[in-house]
Amino acid sequence: MPESDLSGRAVLVTGANGFIGAHLTAALLQAGADVHAMVRAGSSMDRLDRLQTAPRIVGVDLTDHAATRDAVHRIRPEFVFHLAVSRQTGDWDRLLAVNVAGAMNLLRASGEIDCRRFVSLGSALERIDPATGTAANDYGASRAAAGILLRQHAREHRIPLACLRTDYVYGPLQGEGKLIPTALRHAARGSAMPLAPSTARRDYVHVSDVVSACRHAAQAHQPDQFSAEIATGRLWSVAEVIALVAELTGADLRTEPGSAPARAWDTHRGQPDTETASPLPGWSATMDLRAGLLDLISHDRSGREG
Fold first, then answer.
1. Distance between CA 203 and CA 287 in Å, rounded?
2. Is 63 contained in some domain?
3. How many CB atoms lie within 10 A of CB 260?
4. Predicted pLDDT of residue 168
5. pLDDT for 151-171, tens place per residue?
6. According to its UniProt record, which protein family does this protein belong to (predicted)?
7. CA–CA–CA angle 41, 44, 46 (5° rounding)
């Protein structure tokens, strides 16, 4: 089935009100899909509102197995995109309930209605450091555990599963505390930017490319279960990203190295997983970091002018 042939097809997106989820939801609706957005009751819909997109809202908490199962059986989606997570580091009960049990609740229900593909989107924080055998933090560990269980259950029950993993995703509507929005904000204000000590190098992928990768993974002719890294193929240090932001904005972007607290992922040595995941066949990123930043700068300027 061609990637664009989604008209009228039932699709379920969890975490649809998040940064990536909102962009994915908007793209699926634009393609004509019948999109059901599963979100917790009372969650903010700001990103969906700002993208002027209106999916069918399904107010279900993934940690509620019966409610999740009932919703999936009622909707009977052909494709499921799982992006909902808890990032509450330090709260193991919540991390396990949402990221592990919630993901399994959704996969098991999706298998019962024979969905055509279940796509789970993970992140670099779940990569395992070969020196320590650990993930970057407890959030990453919970996602790594979920990935193992999802793949195991999907293989045993023959559920078509795609486990995708990104590194650093950026673009319009990203959280303000992230590196690129912070750099752009300081560039616009002419203020010095505090920096945490960091030796990490990341692959920066524009959110539009992540959306296209999710759609491609759902509809591509691939084995029943596969894993793939969503990446541009180039790693950037924090200093290189800031220098590029300064170049493209024309700003004198000053930094204050070491003035922000260090975080676990700033030195985590987990690298793209070439043993259990490989590049997504038939897909490639359309924007390198320079093109993506130019697009984002243009978007920000048009937003301010509008």
1. 12
2. yes
3. 16
4. 94
5. 999 999 999 999 999 999 999
6. Belongs to the NAD(P)-dependent epimerase/dehydratase family.
7. 145
The yes-or-no verdict on residue 37 having pLDDT over 50 is: yes
Select from 266, 125, 265, 297 the least CA-distant residue to 197.
266
Tell me the three state secondary structure of residue 101.
helix
Beta bridge partners of 14: 38, 82
Helix 179-189 × helix 289-305 angle, to 10° = 50
Predicted local confidence at residue 274, as pLDDT: 43
What DSSP assignment string belongs to 233-250? Answer: S--EEHHHHHHHHHHHHT
The enclosing domain of 25 has a CATH number of: 3.40.50.720
- Please report which residue ranges of the chain form alpha helices under DSSP H: 19-30, 46-50, 65-75, 92-95, 103-112, 138-157, 179-189, 207-219, 238-249, 289-305
Q: Which of the 8 DSSP states describes residue 192?
A: P
Residue 197 lies in a domain: no
Say which residue the tokens 């960091």 belong to. 198
Whether 88 is covered by a domain: the verdict is yes
Q: CA gyration radius for the chain?
A: 19
- Per DSSP, the residues of 197-219 read ----EE-EEEHHHHHHHHHHHHH
Query: Is residue 215 a part of any domain in this protein?
Result: yes
What are the Cα distances from residue 45, in Å, to 35, 49, 62, 124?
15, 6, 18, 26
How many structural domains does the chain have?
Answer: 1
Do residues 26 and 18 lie in contact, with contact meaning Cβ atoms separated by under 8 Å?
no
CA distance linking residue 34 with residue 181, whole number of Å: 32
Q: Where residue 267 falls among pLDDT bands split at 50, 70, 90?
A: low
Q: What are the pLDDT digits (tens) for 272-304?
A: 554 445 789 999 999 999 999 999 998 877 665
